[in-house]
Design goal:
The protein is an alpha/beta fold and 287 residues long. It has a single domain, classed as 4-Layer Sandwich (Metallo-beta-lactamase, Chain A), CATH 3.60.15. Helix content is 32%, strand content 22%. The protein contains ten helices and twelve strands. A seven-stranded mixed β-sheet has the order 1-2-3-4-5-6-7. Strands 8-9-10-11-12 form a five-stranded mixed β-sheet. Helix 7 runs antiparallel to helix 10. The chain starts with 6 loop residues before the first helix and ends with a helix. The structure holds zinc ion. Zinc ion binds next to loops.
């Protein structure tokens, strides 16, 4: 489903008048894929594009992102297929409060009994199911889910021997959270970055009365992301970090394809360029 305010205006000024590539029930995003290990205690348990990651520890497990509402049963099956148990998930985390990453959280919380830990900026959206969103009102809502612990920038979540840090990278949502953690693989330690999102799908960047500081927030976010050391590059959408291609290469003997610091830099360059061109186009046509 794509929202187009007007096909003619859309063709003339795509960044100004085309609406978001928000795809609530996209089969392309939600095709089942086989779960797999990325590094020692880090596993992929999401769908073909909407991601979900399982981090296991001796004290219980952490699950980052719940996909769409329809993804929840896939995540549950994927966790079980790897030999883990949803009842063992103690902490649920979220990249951001949009229906393609938070839609399954209420169900996953119900079956696991886990605590949901989320950013201050996205708590309201999580608890209302993204009603009255600054960009799309009530069009892309999801089942509301209660937040048990609210985090600020730099806060850490520790379970067992694993600590994961929240970096608030706002713009895409007010509390968009990029998570980082160290992980080991074949005896070496790597910095993992789980990028929230830097896209601005159909967003009004210039003169947005509902989110006046939106441009400042994106600019801050690119600065923060550039400052993070990254070896293993992951994100809320598989398309951001070439999930499918990397999964295929995982079984070859060339080393772990998810260790991709250059891919991370290239993603940031590409997405910052995209953001700047949207902003420039909107600025040119601003009243
Ligand atoms: Zn989103």
């Amino acid at each position: 489903m794509r929202f187009r305010l007007c096909p003619f205006l859309c063709a003339l000024f795509p960044f100004l008048f085309c609406a978001p590539p928000a795809v609530p029930s996209s089969r392309d995003w939600n095709r089942p894929v086989k779960p797999f290990r990325i590094a020692d205690n880090l596993y992929y348990v999401g769908a073909s594009d909407v991601t979900s990651f399982l981090i296991t520890t001796p004290e219980g497990d952490i699950l980052l992102d719940g996909g769409l509402r329809e993804t929840a049963p896939q995540i549950e099956r994927n966790v079980a297929a790897l030999g883990f148990h949803m009842e063992n998930v103690k902490i649920l985390l979220n990249s951001h409060a949009h229906m393609d990453h938070a839609g399954g959280l209420a169900e996953l919380k119900r079956i696991s009994g886990a605590q949901l830990v989320a950013s201050r900026g996205d708590t309201h959206a999580l608890e209302t199911g993204d009603r009255d969103d600054f960009a799309w009102g009530n069009k892309l809502t999801f089942p509301p889910v209660k937040v048990d612990r609210i985090l600020s920038d730099g806060d850490r979540v520790t379970l067992g021997n694993t600590t994961i840090t929240a970096h608030i990278t706002p713009g895409h949502t007010r509390g968009c959270t990029t998570w980082t953690m160290p992980v080991t693989d074949h005896g070496k330690t790597y910095n993992v970055v789980f990028v929230c999102s830097t896209s601005a799908p159909g967003y009004k960047l210039v003169g947005n009365h509902k989110y006046p500081q939106i441009v400042h927030d994106y600019e801050h976010t690119f600065q923060v992301l550039r400052s993070l050391p990254c070896d293993i590059f992951l994100a809320s959408h598989g398309s951001f970090f070439d999930l499918t291609a990397k999964r295929k290469r995982l079984d070859s003997s060339e080393g772990n394809p998810f260790i991709d610091p250059n891919g991370y830099r290239a993603f940031l360059d590409r997405s910052e360029r995209e953001f700047k061109s949207i902003l420039a186009a909107q600025s040119r046509h601003a009243p």
